[in-house]
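JOB MANIFEST
job_type = single_chain_structure
chain_count = 1
residues = 401
[input]
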Amino acid sequence: MNTEVKQLSIITIPNQCMKGLSLLLMLSLIQGCSLFGGDDEDESLLPAELIDFIETVEVDRDWKTSVGKSHEGLGVGLLPASDGEVVYAASFNGNVVALNLSNGRKVWDRSFDLSFTAGPTYKDGILILGTNNGELINIDSMTGNLLWEASVSSEILAPAAIRNNQVFVRSVDGNLSAYAAEDGSLLWIANHKVPRLSLRGTSSPATFANAVISGFDDGKVTAYDLIDGALLWETMLTPPGGRTEIEKVIDIDAPIVVVGNELYAGSYQGALAALALESGDIIWLTEASIYSGMAVSDDAVFVSQADGTVMALSRFTGREIWKKENLLNRYPTAPAIVGNSIVIGDLEGYLHWLNKESGETQQRISIGSDKISSTPIVVDDTVLVQTDGGDLVAVKTFSSS
């Protein structure tokens, strides 16, 4: 069966079914691997072999604990959050834990009859989580007690945002909704039409001043007024290209990053761009295919592309500083900045430290055999990683050169 026929077969599947496919499956279809059997595995699509390197960063696995049931292949947005002293994490099978950052000891744990798929988001003593059935819940970070539960229009796959006593949540049906942080009452809903085909995943909302911003499955970045959800501006990164429905998929699923007066957004099979926060005007734009996300420093944007390429670009011009293909087909997470390095997880449970200036590998450790889909988070010199197998691992970085 040729690739054209296979692509035609998949575009007849309804969108609600496509949303249940993992990114890995979707990319396999795009690259011509057969869902129906008959083709030999293309060696060019195998994960890149790990290269030798000279260690220039010292790290140590500080502690490790199990949060709960594995969520591998589900494409969920579970990742830890921290207030600087305590780490909060949730599992697909309803567990929520609070752990001491310094030693991993349990502060409290709670179990809910829910399937968590997004969060937690922490701010001002509360934790916000989302579920596969569209439940939005607010938990007291001191005790783990449930404060309120609200109903969202569909599944939640990205952490919520909290600002000015409001909670903003993006759901897979294209809705961006605002809720009162005090009691969970619905304040407003803005809807974006979902294309017939899209990748499983959504972009987390970002806030600034009087606006909340989100990326959508049609490749647009849109800003709404915090108070009433009125449209402020909307920008298309790049229009859909290609001849087939799959080639036209241009979802913005990577979290938007706001730094200074700019925001940075990337789309799948589309572009990476810097936009002016006030107007949405494009400052610079470069061709890219982004799914997992990016990190932004004072002068550079670090990004993992869908094929595994890792790049650094000038924050001000978008020009390439360096590009590395050491992680091709290893499904790297979005980078996180720690000291003079960026740290990235991969599908085989490895964490990779790359030099921010050159992209050279500085360190690599295995934290287990489970895939790492969630972006590592950094608290001071500690890297926190939640694996798809449900483990939470803390790794301390001691020095770099």
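[summary]
The chain has one domain: 3-399.
The chain has three helices and 33 strands.
exit_status = 0
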